[in-house]
Design a protein that fits this description.
Protein name: Crp/Fnr family transcriptional regulator
CATH architecture of the largest domain: Sandwich
CATH superfamily of the largest domain: Jelly Rolls
Largest sheet: 4 strands, antiparallel
Strand content: 15-25%
Radius of gyration: 18 Å
InterPro entries: cNMP-bd_dom, cNMP-bd_dom_sf, Env_Response_Regulators, HTH_CRP, RmlC-like_jellyroll, WH-like_DNA-bd_sf, WH_DNA-bd_sf
Domain HTH crp-type: 134-208
Helix content: 40-55%
Organism: Sphingomonas oligophenolica
Pfam families: cNMP_binding, HTH_Crp_2
Order of helices and strands: HEEEEEEEEHHHEHHEEH
Strand order of the largest sheet: 1-8-3-6
Number of strands: 11
């Protein structure tokens, strides 16, 4: 987003001094657990989810390296979501007091955290609208584009081909569909020439058509950050 000053980089490095490895499928935090730590996701991919009354799971967000997670710890004593590793992962835990120092000493970093949370809020609003108002095909197409967008931010050379890294059940839990329905929608999208799939990798063969089918808005593009304070 913006070039960080040496002081800002050093402040973030302090948050990442400790490391905690997670195996695929491990739970970092459970919904309603007492919590006091925040985390930076260093490696791997994770997800946040909630358990619904009928025992089903709703995936809220997919989390990527560089994301600050469990930020709700700043305002709640009990976790409102479960955090689970989708791959082998590494996180850096830090206490709320470290966030207090960062906000005081580096207001631009605090503002960037606010920006990131607003991007997530907008993306979650899109997901909520999609669950209530769009077709199954649109929901699955949106997940593909969301994953591509995040992966491209981490790897500018990823182009139109990327490793999806999600099971059909996980896509279903994010879109409110069954795994069978997800499979059917992926086949339909592929048959319509929008994507190609091979060995767990997805290639966007007609990205414009896919974005139109998904009513997709890339919430990481078109940011207006001219208001940010100067870095320290």
């Amino acid at each position: 987003m913006v070039a960080l000053t040496p002081g800002e980089q050093a402040a973030l490095e302090q948050l990442e001094e400790r490391e905690r490895p997670l195996r695929r499928g491990a739970t970092l935090q459970r919904e309603n657990d007492r919590c006091s730590e925040l985390f930076i996701l260093r490696k791997g991919m994770m997800m946040s989810s909630v358990l619904l009354d009928d025992g089903s799971r709703q995936i809220l967000r997919f989390l990527f390296p560089g994301d600050m997670i469990a930020v709700s710890t700043l305002v709640y004593r009990e976790a409102p979501e479960t955090l689970t590793a989708l791959t082998d992962a590494m996180v850096s835990p830090f206490e709320r007091s470290a966030m207090s120092r960062l906000v005081s000493d580096h207001p631009r970093l605090a503002a960037l955290i606010l920006v990131h949370n607003q991007i997530e809020r907008a993306a979650l609003t899109d997901r909520l609208a999609a669950l209530g108002r769009t077709s199954a095909k649109a929901r699955v197409a949106a997940i593909l584009l969301e994953m591509r967008s995040r992966i491209r931010m981490l790897d500018k050379g990823s182009g139109k081909t990327f490793t999806l890294g999600l099971t059909q059940e996980e896509i279903g839990d994010a879109t409110g569909l069954t795994a069978v329905h997800v499979n059917r929608m992926l086949r339909q999208i592929e048959e319509e020439g929008m994507i190609a799939r091979e060995g767990g990798r997805v290639t966007l063969t007609n990205e414009r058509a896919l974005a139109k089918a998904a009513n997709f808005v890339d919430r990481y593009a078109g940011l207006d950050l001219g208001w940010l304070p100067e870095g320290r």
